[in-house]
Specification:
- With 546 residues, this protein is an alpha+beta fold.
- It folds into two domains: 36-199, Alpha-Beta Complex (Penicillin-binding protein 2a (Domain 2)); 203-251 and 261-416 and 425-537, Beta-lactamase (3-Layer(aba) Sandwich), CATH 3.40.710.
- The chain is 33% helix and 24% strand.
- The strands form nine sheets. Strands 13-12-25-24-23 form a five-stranded antiparallel sheet, with helices on both faces.
- Helix 15 crosses helix 16.
- The radius of gyration is 33 Å and the shape is elongated.
- The N and C termini lie far apart (104 Å).
Length: 546
Amino acid sequence: MIRKRGESGIIILTAVFFLIFTVIASDYFILSMDNTHIKAADEYSELTIRAGESQGTIYDRKMRPLVNENSEYYAVIVPYAADMKAVEEYAYDEKELEKHRSSTVPYVIKCRKEMPSSEGITVFEIPERYSEDNTAQHIIGYLSEGKGASGIEYAYDKILRNESGENSVTYTCDGFGRVLIGDGKKVRESSCNVGGVVTTIDRDHQKICENAVKDPAKGAIVLSDVYSGDILSLVSFPEYSPDRIEEAIADPESPLINRALYSYSVGSVFKLVTACEAINEGKKGYIYECSGSIGIKGQRFNCHKYDGHGKENLTKALTDSCNTYFIALSRRLDKGSFRRLAHDLSFGRETPLCAGIVGSSGVLPSLNDLDIPAELANFSFGQGKLSATPLQVNQMTCAIANGGQVPVLRLIKGITVDGKNTANEKPPQLSAVISSDTSAGLRRMMTAAIRDNENANAYSPIVKIAAKTSTAQTGRYDDEGNEYCHGWITGFFPADSPKYALTVLIEDGGYGNDAAAPLFREIAEKISLLERKTDENATVSEKNGP
């Protein structure tokens, strides 16, 4: 077919116009789609680029941050208006910068603090959520897809993350979406990280407790103020990293579990409850001859000292941790009153700290259970069906130390808007459970249990300690037939003027005196030395004046 010359010219001209349109449309598409941080207005008169989000802070009791301690820096770069030598010099990651090397639209890179701002460079300081030296991880929790997934991060997600957290810069653009340099820019720097949640945790005490843990170990540590019930430190171990959650999930040691919230066999620390009931019922003077075992309705219970302790009174039996004494004593107690006292001292009740952080109720045997002689015998020295959390044991210890009042354990003080003042703070809540005379008697016994026991690993020449250890049987055995036992210790210090209640559990750790008591001593000593140093500094400051 032969085309006319005019028709051929029209075809060529049409093809040229189509090619030009395709190139322009392609450039415009690339311009509009090159950076996912860009959000342009419908009129294309403004261009907004987001540079990360700031999140609210979780504080300790002294308004020191437990998260957001460090900062990261991000820069919004307008490539044709920025000093690219400065961009290259201060860019945090050369590979990241290389991705934008040929970009003609604004982009965001991580940079160093010293990067200079200009019309084409806008630098933002963004709080880094977690750091390598992160503390109290089981309390704080972690994030998943930008939302709180556990701990305080979950419980206060809406407060810690809100719309005001966005950091951004907005430019005036021409009709093609290109930034007009010289028309100014609107910078939005979020300050929402100043507000957040205030906990009862003392960061110094938390780190002391965490550093006392010797790997490998599993367990929990609870430190509280005996009068307010404020939790000053709550440690679960092993630890985990919030940046490696999948690794923690696959770990057979289950580091994501907050062991302070889980119930375990209690063992001899429960003898404090038995002793308390005996004092209440006027049986403090009960004497028993321990021969190493005792028969209860055809079932024999052994004392840990197989040849017996000989003649025991209540104080000596607590120091010696004599099982047979407490079994014999329990048979002379009112079972209903005994169980009720245990319940009032926190056993068998959940310990809610905040949404998602709730201590298990454990198991408190029923009255029908205690009608069974063997179950009552087990109950008297903390075995059998009985189980409790480190939180519950710590609550009981507070009541003994403070004169007989069980406090509601508290982890959250309130919220803050300015990072200086706490709002919605509730006063301590305490319930009188035992008399001041009874609690004083128990305190003397716990002091004697450490002072008069030459083998007590909780004894310290630095601070006077009152405590009770236990080795709780689990009914589980290793391949060689050795039973796994949980090592416990709970007590308070200073013994003469109680201030802190401290409970340590070493899961499958063996003897409480070997596994848990050394940690108790180390923590008590370091906190006492820290207090002395603080007091000395305050005295020097007062002498020097303002």
